[in-house]
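Hi, does anyone understand the following?
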Amino acid sequence: MACLLTRSRAEACKDTVAGIKEIYFVDYGLLGAYTLGSSDEITNATSASDITAHKYLVKGNNSFETTINASRENGTVFYEQVLNITLKKLTKEDNKELKLLAAGRPHVLVVDYNDNVFLMGKDNGADVTAGTVSTGNALGDFNGYNLTFTAMEVSPPNFVTVDATAATFPLSELAGLTGTVTIGTPVSI
């Protein structure tokens, strides 16, 4: 099999910023089959189920990174996608939801500050692989949750083609979804 390159790349302009502004969790398997565009972006998904995406607003120490794991000896390559999020303030409701997140393997839509949307765990879902629940020590210490999600996939996280103005952003462009798409309202705590 020939692995021929298809394009070149110029030096990028300095017109982006780093960071994650929001995350959407969707129960594993509900997004159904995907349609990929010419640049491997997800342009459509088909599902017979109603879908609720649980929106988490995040600020501060959050990151999304993908590590390429390739072995010439074995002839294999896979991509480890790692999402680290910090959720401020401990609550009994969040503790209950944390147990569900840790037991499941949701699909995760990650939205950065450039309004790029990435689908983490497209085929295999994402697992909570580490985390802490911290009360802090001094009055000004961090009080809340630090969670690490990991997904092992055969491709890097796909961009999702979206309309950032739609009511169901970032799921608005997944037009093949036949069920109702609902963005769960974040609970103010």
Summary: The radius of gyration is 18 Å. The chain has a mean pLDDT of 83.
